[in-house]
Amino acid sequence: MSAPVLEFEDAGLSFGPRRLWSGLSLRVEPGEFVAVLGANGSGKTSLVRAILGLQRLSSGRIRLVGSPPRRGSDDIGYVPQQRRIDPLTPMRARDIVGQGLDGHRWGLGRQAGRAARVRAALESVDAAAFADLPIGLLSGGEQQRVRIAQALVADPGLLLCDEPLLSLDLRSQRTITALVDRRRREKGTAVVFVTHEINPVLPYVDRVLYLADGRFRVGSVEEVFTSTTMSELYGVPVEVVRINGRILVAGIPQADEAHHHENGAVSGARRG
Ligand SMILES: Nc1ncnc2c1ncn2[C@@H]1O[C@H](COP(=O)(O)OP(=O)(O)OP(=O)(O)O)[C@@H](O)[C@H]1O
């Protein structure tokens, strides 16, 4: 078996008396697509911060290509939560992608080599056509493709995405998820993809890490998205049904119908 790109060993994180998760063991292999789901406040972003070396664990350890996480690691391409960029931002798409090389081993190379890398990264997300456009003038979905190109330009072993689909329409969601899938298939890049909505990633996910109420479950979609597992995780009856290939989850405590259920799906929850 190949060495894991990312490994959690009996990892735990608590803030004071509040336990987000503990006893988490997980190996993410090259090319694997792992979706991280859970209610608001369940600890998804804290998990991302721990992988980035920005948050110390309370127990256990994380290994990234065999080493402890550290800030600015070459091994991670990070896509932060989607947010609109100011239309007046003067940078071009290619400048944004080039920032992904700053501080990396590729960043100091010849200018021609750098330009070729940036071009290849933009092509890999089908964004070459807007390389010279100001980033602020692109649509939300186009901006997100540029962010993914920035994350991939230094050729990391792990693509770490924190809710990259937020505020994107269904078509853009499909484009982004398909591009991420293509990358991991072609280059073996492992993917950890935080999302509150399983349906957009359903065709691609190998495993799910679902966080809830200090508990978690790791497994295939079929293993995690069952009424039994979800009811155990939340400690109340939760119903999971499949309709037309989509997963609907009903009964998560204090679900905020308005906040998280775009596309008609019910799979998130907001805890007050
Ligand atoms: N540095 C910190 N100190 C104390 N509590 C923290 C700290 N960071 C996060 N928390 C708490 O830990 C919990 C989990 O936060 P986190 O942002 O990881 O959740 P999340 O699953 O990403 O939520 P959301 O879906 O709303 O983004 C929250 O209750 C948060 O207030």
What does this structure look like?
- The protein has 272 residues and is an alpha/beta fold.
- Helices cover 28% and strands 25% of the residues.
- The protein contains 8 helices and 11 strands.
- It has helices at residues 44-51, 93-99, 111-124, 140-152, 170-187, 221-224, 227-234, 257-260, and strands spanning 6-15, 18-28, 33-38, 59-64, 76-79, 158-162, 190-194, 207-212, 215-219, 239-243, 246-250.
- Strands 5-6-7-3-8-9 form a 6-stranded mixed beta sheet, with helices on both faces. It has a 3-stranded antiparallel beta sheet with strand order 2-1-4, covered by helices on one side. It has a two-stranded antiparallel sheet with strand order 10-11.
- Helix 2 packs parallel to helix 4 (140-152).
- It is globular, with a radius of gyration of 19 Å.
- The relative contact order is 0.16.
- Residues 15, 20, 38, 40-46 line the site of adenosine-5'-triphosphate.
- Adenosine-5'-triphosphate is lined by residues 15, 20, 38, 40-46.
